[in-house]
């Protein structure tokens, strides 16, 4: 048998590739048109979510699940006591209630400087806050330590917020 000539081998290879094709049209990146369309939809949805989070950050509410917080004119003592217990167990190793920096910033006056939503979002969502929120980014740059996610629930973060409010009213 004669060896196949280069042209014949090229044609044979092309036919094999064509026969293995799924029939879907592919983009330059190797995705099918359908996959490419889904990727663009997901990208647009991600951009929309990022725009919403940026808008929240611009309003001083931070980035995260907390969009609104109802706070009373007076301190809820029971909630503040619960917050004190949580703060002492999860926060006090890095934060003082004074102006003193330990690992993280001192928290005296924080409820007067930040919106309640921002404080709660920083407690429950510290990684995303330091990636996306301008104020949190600045704090990270100043203190050089990423706040650890302590897996605090929104309810517990609300209790911590009440404790911080109590501390700021006493000052």
TrEMBL record:
Signal peptide: 1-21
Biased composition (Low complexity): 46-57
Pfam families, A to Z: Cytochrom_C
Protein keywords: Heme, Iron, Metal-binding, Signal
InterPro entries assigned to the protein according to its UniProt record, in alphabetical order: Cyt_c-like_dom, Cyt_c-like_dom_sf
SUPFAM superfamilies: Cytochrome c
Residue stretches making up the Cytochrome c domain: 78-168
Region span, Disordered: 23-64
Name this protein carries in UniProt: C-type cytochrome
Source organism (scientific name): Pontibacter ruber
Lineage of the organism: Bacteria, Pseudomonadati, Bacteroidota, Cytophagia, Cytophagales
């Amino acid at each position: 048998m004669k060896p196949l000539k280069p042209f014949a081998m090229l044609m044979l290879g092309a036919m094999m590739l064509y026969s293995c094709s799924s029939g879907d049209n592919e983009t330059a990146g190797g995705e099918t048109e359908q996959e490419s369309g889904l990727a663009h939809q997901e990208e647009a949805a991600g951009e929309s979510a990022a725009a919403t989070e940026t808008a929240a950050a611009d309003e001083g509410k931070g980035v995260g699940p907390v969009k609104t917080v109802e706070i009373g004119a007076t301190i809820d003592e029971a909630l503040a006591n619960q917050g004190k217990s949580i703060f002492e167990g999860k926060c006090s190793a890095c934060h003082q209630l004074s102006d003193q920096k330990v690992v993280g910033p001192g928290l005296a006056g924080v409820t007067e400087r930040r919106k309640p939503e921002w404080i709660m979002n920083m407690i429950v969502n510290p990684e995303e806050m330091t990636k996306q929120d301008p104020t949190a980014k600045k704090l990270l740059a100043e203190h050089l330590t990423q706040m650890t996610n302590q897996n605090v629930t929104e309810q517990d973060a609300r209790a911590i917020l009440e404790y911080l409010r109590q501390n700021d009213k006493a000052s």
